[in-house]
């Protein structure tokens, strides 16, 4: 049975681009948005957990986010995770609630966010390349088992490289659009 599955590899590559879109939606462009905190992971109970699984996030005002932590003992780790997320937010502890004022975007902050967007983009491209590597390894294994010929392997490798190039281009386009939005150009 051949291990190479082009449809699965394509699904995984597209998943990396969708993950990039999701991560970039969390980068703010001036207004409070609950998606801003989606990529944040909190270390509670000895495990990394998404913020939305230990607290509820709301936007009561256009320039304020509110994080209602469900277990009072988790306020410290949640606050630490938000501060260390690199989003430039400083939580204000208000009992069981953390208030996050959203500062105005300065030119320096816009550049930091654009840099963060390009880091997210690079992670997505690495994920796409890892999927390509998995596909190439599967092709070589299939060829070694004599399930496909060398010519078929080379043809599939060319197809896989073309798919990889398309998905990396899609990731670049998504990232460029977000950077343009952040920088206000």
UniProtKB/TrEMBL annotation:
Protein family (similarity comment): Belongs to the RRF family.
Protein name as annotated: Ribosome-recycling factor
Lineage: Bacteria, Pseudomonadati, Pseudomonadota, Alphaproteobacteria, Sphingomonadales
Keywords from the named record: Coiled coil, Cytoplasm, Protein biosynthesis
GO terms, molecular function: ribosomal large subunit binding
Task of the protein: Responsible for the release of ribosomes from messenger RNA at the termination of protein biosynthesis. May increase the efficiency of translation by recycling ribosomes from one round of translation to another.
Segments forming a coiled coil: 139-180
SUPFAM superfamilies: Ribosome recycling factor, RRF
Compartment(s): Cytoplasm
Positions of the Ribosome recycling factor domain: 20-183
Keyword Iron-sulfur attached: no
InterPro entries: Ribosome_recyc_fac, Ribosome_recyc_fac_dom, RRF_sf
GO biological process, one term: cytoplasmic translational termination
Domain of life: Bacteria
Matching Pfam families: RRF
Example of a GO cellular component annotation carried by this entry: cytosol
UniProt cross-references to CDD domains, sorted A to Z: RRF
């Amino acid at each position: 049975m051949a291990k190479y599955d082009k449809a699965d590899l394509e699904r995984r590559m597209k998943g990396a681009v969708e993950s990039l879109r999701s991560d970039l939606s969390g980068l703010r462009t001036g207004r409070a948005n609950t998606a801003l905190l989606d990529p944040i992971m909190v270390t509670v109970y000895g495990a990394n957990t998404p913020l939305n699984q230990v607290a509820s996030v709301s936007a009561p005002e256009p320039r304020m986010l509110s994080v209602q932590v469900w277990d009072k003992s988790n306020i410290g780790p949640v606050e630490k995770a938000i501060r260390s997320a690199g989003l430039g937010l400083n939580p204000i502890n208000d009992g069981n609630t953390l208030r996050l004022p959203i500062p105005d975007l300065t030119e320096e902050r816009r550049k930091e966010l654009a840099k963060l967007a390009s880091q997210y983009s690079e992670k997505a491209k690495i994920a796409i390349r890892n999927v390509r590597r998995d596909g190439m390894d599967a092709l070589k294994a299939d060829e070694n088992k004599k399930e496909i010929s060398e010519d078929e392997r080379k043809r599939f490798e060319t197809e896989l490289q073309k798919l990889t190039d398309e998905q990396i281009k899609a990731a670049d386009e998504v990232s460029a659009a977000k950077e343009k939005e952040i920088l206000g150009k």
